[in-house]
Write a structure and sequence with these properties.
The protein contains seven helices and no strands. The chain has 125 residues and is mainly alpha-helical.
Length: 125
């Protein structure tokens, strides 16, 4: 999978550097594209069309990474740090998966997640 991600990263970099349309897009413009791609994913899920679903999820992934790379080029984020932060957050908020907590239902898993999320927000305020 890492090789595929590296290849996609190269494709996105080349698109940013060589595509006149992409060069003229702001991060806010790309969020409109993300909404369009997300709606297409939702439509394919509802239709149950797995052939097109894979393509639409790929389009959404491409567009989200494109947004991250454009924001990174503007110095607003680090894409690597963004990926590390979300990974750390998922692990921290999922002790029923990565730790010693037990969740025997989706509701319990969500309650654990929300309790940790709430405690994090209380600490920042």
């Amino acid at each position: 999978m890492n090789n595929s991600i590296d290849i996609l990263n190269g494709t996105i970099e080349e698109t940013i550097n060589k595509c006149h349309w992409t060069k003229n897009q702001s991060p806010l413009d790309i969020t409109n594209s993300i909404n369009e791609e997300l709606n297409e994913v939702i439509e394919e899920i509802k239709k149950g069309d797995n052939n097109n679903l894979e393509e639409e999820v790929g389009d959404l992934l491409f567009t989200v990474i494109l947004l991250g790379k454009l924001l990174e080029k503007e110095g607003k984020i680090s894409l690597i740090k963004t990926i590390q932060r979300v990974n750390d957050k998922i692990i921290k908020r999922s002790p029923h998966v990565f730790g010693d907590k037990v969740a025997t239902s989706p509701e319990e898993a969500l309650a654990i997640w929300n309790a940790i999320k709430y405690s994090e927000y209380k600490k920042t305020k």
